[in-house]
């Protein structure tokens, strides 16, 4: 069997080009942080991007969950590749603290709760901080 070195070279170049052209978008964690003086209770409608570990998550039915975050702790809720909009783990969110109730009933309102830089862009990693 005769080996065609030119075809082998072209195949190697094609594989190298495919590897170089793949996306290298950064991945950021999405979390809810409780910086208040008491526990918070979160009730949320989730998306398929919701992933939480380390806290007791109570399933309330189709895509609805409830969980508590003690004071000074946080819950990792998922990961976002490059931007939060496409990887948002919640479509709606209700956060109950000792003194207030925060309601975000649309994905845009949920996004508006996350910390922002001084220029208005979202901070990364994505943190929704309750004070």
TrEMBL record:
Name of the protein in question: Lipoprotein
Organism placement in taxonomy: Bacteria, Pseudomonadati, Bacteroidota, Cytophagia, Cytophagales
Origin: domain of life: Bacteria
